[in-house]
Fold this sequence. Notes:
151 residues; four-stranded antiparallel sheet; 39% helix
Amino acid sequence: MGNLEKDGVSLGKAAVLLVLHTGGAETALQDRSVACGYKVYKGKVGSMDSAKIFAAITTAAKREGLINDRYREEHALYHSILEAYHGICRGQDGLGNVMRSAGLLFSIVRGPRLPNDAADGEWIAIALYGSMGAPIKGFEHEVLGLGINPV
Length: 151
């Protein structure tokens, strides 16, 4: 992971690296992210229905204590998911209506934009990574999206 051990990692970079890494590298990145003042979570979701993707990420964020039920926090989360989702859909925000399916990993990272910078306030980042394509095995391709908003 290069200079991450020495220099820390920004909020968006933590979200993207977390969604891409697995195994020992994932565990090390989670530990380093927590040391940088972030709360982190990684999960997975697959669907042809965008509402199910949004719901899975929102449910995970609430269940893991990354957001509470205040409007401002839910609103920041929603827009972060929407930005990441927009990125993986190439500007066409929809799956089932255009016969695409998605198998995605997602990461949620909450904290300051830069490591241990509490003066900057709280932000939330969502990264999505996985495959998308026609609902036929072998017809998919990789996708990656990132959304960041202030809480």
